[in-house]
Specification:
Order of helices and strands: EHEEEHEEEHHEEHEH
Structural class: alpha+beta
Number of strands: 10
Radius of gyration: 21 Å
Shape: globular
Distance between the termini: 30 Å
Length: about 220
């Protein structure tokens, strides 16, 4: 399914914000930005009548999310052709307020609802797995061995359309009450959360002389 990035996000009973509706983002580009910036999503499914939420890797092609795991994974098998919820949250800072009640977090969060579809078509499955690999480790797909038939058979890939989705963002300083601003003597503000890449650690079995490739060393 093809959409123009600026198409507004859906507005349904599940995606309309009840608390702090002013924090909603309605541009589909904001959804794509959060999904592209995250590394791990949380997949919510129902297993044997009980909720189950597990972290998993993902990739995106246009407006479709791809999730993968072992063909024997309970969570993925339970998610086939059933309603699921996928969330991606990025923490940008801890908000220190003048009252305990007003402490908060600056964040960007995307929530996607929909029916998960098992991908059996070979071409789409390979494309989805490539999207996953390039999302987690950009630049690597063209330099590594592609999956074998046996590996593909052992991998379950789910596709989830992002038609029904919401994005919520909090940014800025604490929202203290006027009385607290006037009387409190404690520090208030935001402590940013910054994620950086460390020094690459070569595999102990790596042959001597194999340099760290640019797509690893220069990842930003």
């Amino acid at each position: 399914m093809t959409r123009i990035d600026s198409t507004p996000l859906s507005s349904t009973a599940r995606t309309r914000l009840g608390r702090y509706p002013d924090r909603a983002r309605t541009d589909r580009r904001d959804l794509h930005a959060v999904l592209d910036a995250g590394l791990v999503c949380h997949l919510g499914v129902t297993v044997d009548g009980a909720p189950l939420v597990l972290p998993t890797g993902y990739g995106r092609i246009g407006d479709v999310l791809y999730l993968h795991g072992s063909s024997a994974a309970t969570s993925l098998r339970a998610a086939e052709a059933t309603p699921v919820c996928v969330t991606v949250t990025l923490v940008d800072g801890i908000v220190y307020a003048r009252s305990a009640f007003s402490h908060s977090v600056n964040y960007r969060c995307a929530v996607v609802h929909g029916l998960a579809r098992r991908v059996d078509d070979g071409t789409e499955k390979l494309a989805g797995l490539r999207a996953l690999a390039e999302h987690m480790a950009p630049g690597s797909w063209g330099h590594v061995r592609e999956p074998t038939r046996k590996e593909l058979a052992a991998t379950l890939l789910l596709a989830l359309d992002t038609t029904e989705a919401s994005v919520k963002v909090r940014s800025g300083p604490p929202g203290d009450e006027d009385d607290d601003v006037a009387t409190a003597q404690c520090w208030a503000g935001v402590l940013p959360v910054v994620t950086t890449w460390g020094e690459p650690q070569p595999c102990p079995q790596l042959e001597a002389g194999v340099a760290v490739p640019g797509y690893v060393a220069n990842r930003s």
